[in-house]
Amino acid sequence: MAVIYLGIPVLLLVAVGLIASTGSALAWIGCVVPLAMLVTGFVLRRRHRYQPRWWLAVAGLFGGLAGLMVTLFPLAVGVWWPAILALPGLIVGIVAGLALARAADRALLVPFVPELAGTPYELVFRLRGIPLAAVLVGADSVTIQSHPIPRSEHQFRTYPLSGITGTYEFSLSGAERLKFPIAVTHAVASEGPAVILQADGEDWVLPTNQSSTLIDVLTERREN
Questions:
Q1: Which residue, among 94, 96, 88, has the nearest Cα to 72 in the 3D structure?
Q2: Buried-most residue among 92, 143, 144, 147 (CB within 10 A)?
Q3: Rounded to an integer, what distance in angstroms lies between the CA atom of residue 178 and that of residue 59?
Q4: Does residue 166 contact residue 224 with C-beta atoms inside 8 Å?
Q5: Alpha helices per DSSP H over 21-114
């Protein structure tokens, strides 16, 4: 997380500084962008420390900005050819940032440390076969959403942990037709582990490769 929120802006600041040193004094104005990213990253890091769902968005944004800046800023010192790499630079930056966020997410959950359930982390479990959908387990609630940033109440459902009446590990054959109480754009049942979650009279079948981990986290936090 530190690499995403602080490392990327620092590396960009160094790169921009090296490029600016080959031009006029005005070129140093370009350092404003990475400095602004660094300040933003410092503030957001404290806010998002226990919310991994934001790591992916910030990583993609910072990575993309860094890729664009490195390829376009040489124009300020009279070097034109890197500008043709602006689009590839943007793509590479985004992909590299997302890879960092994915690595941070996996470091948090794979392998799962039982003590993690007793921390303030909002743990994110991706749903297999349902693009963008996830289960967010907070300190006192669980949210199931079909989009990382739900645009309407039809795209997510939040339950207090006290409202969960049952969690069961299940195995899908891949032939099932998945239905959800929320609006889901595209859901494809695939063979593998899943969790049946019962809450407030609603039954969910949640396909996740981390089914046992999800149940362990929910059980631990419900007991606490």
A1: 88
A2: 144
A3: 32
A4: no
A5: 32-48, 53-72, 86-109
Q: How far is CA 136 from the centre of its chain?
A: 11
* Residue 40 identity: T
What is the Cα–Cα distance from 31 to 42, expressed in whole angstroms? 17
Please give the pLDDT value at position 176: 73
* 94, HSE (Cβ side, Cα atoms, 13 Å): 9
- Using CA atoms, how far apart are residues 178 and 196, in angstroms rounded to an integer? 12
Rounded-to-integer distance, Cα 148 and Cα 158, Å:
14
Instruction: Provide the 3-class DSSP secondary structure of residue 69.
Output: helix
In Å, the largest CA–CA distance within the chain is 68
Strands in the chain per DSSP E:
123-126, 134-137, 141-145, 156-160, 164-172, 192-199, 202-207
The number of beta carbons lying within 10 Å of the beta carbon of residue 154 is 12
Q: Give the pLDDT confidence score for residue 36 in this predicted structure.
A: 95
Contacts of 71 (CB under 8 A, 6+ apart): 82, 83, 85, 86, 88, 89, 90
Q: Which of 135, 110, 140, 106 is nearest to 220 (CA)?
A: 140
Prediction pTM value: 0.76
The structure tokens listed for 221 are: 């936090």
Residues of the chain with pLDDT under 50: none
In tens, the pLDDT along 77-136 reads: 888 988 999 999 999 999 999 999 988 888 877 777 777 777 888 888 888 888 888 899
The length of the chain in residues reads 224
